[in-house]
Write a structure and sequence with these properties.
Elements lengths: L1 H18 L8 E6 L2 E10 H12 L2 E3 L7 E10 H8 L5 E6 L10 E7 L2
Parallel strand pairs: 3-6
Antiparallel strand pairs: 1-2, 2-4, 5-6
Length: 117
């Protein structure tokens, strides 16, 4: 009986340890609103921020997965172009194509191509 309780306690401890890693570490929040972006990231790779931008902003991002630099930053309601300049300063460069027909809640950019190195 004691062995069964011990095994159950070990299983519960393993689950708690798996989910008790620092809650903020790796956290990424991106919101887009009328050409302004808010990005809150805590020790997250730029690739993850860009993936969230692509998902929410309905933007095709080329080579975003190659941006592995880990950053912590808080950008609140700044123009998207300025946010890209900050996010992609470690890249060799980037090109962003503005969306021809704006979509409510989407990024002002239809496509972003990153020159990673």
């Amino acid at each position: 009986m004691m062995q069964k309780i011990f095994r159950c306690a070990v299983a519960v401890a393993a689950l708690v340890a798996a989910f008790a890693s620092p809650a903020a570490a790796g956290e990424v929040k991106v919101t887009l609103n009328q050409g302004l972006v808010t990005i809150i990231a805590d020790e997250a790779p730029i690739s993850r921020i860009l993936a969230e931008w692509a998902r929410l902003g309905q933007t095709k991002i080329v080579n975003g997965e190659k941006m592995m630099t880990v950053v912590s930053l808080q950008l609140v309601d700044i123009p998207e172009r300025q946010a890209l300049d900050i996010l992609l300063r470690s890249a060799s460069g980037y090109m962003a194509a503005e969306r021809q027909n704006p979509i409510a809640g989407a990024s002002a950019f239809d496509r972003i191509m990153i020159l990673p190195f």
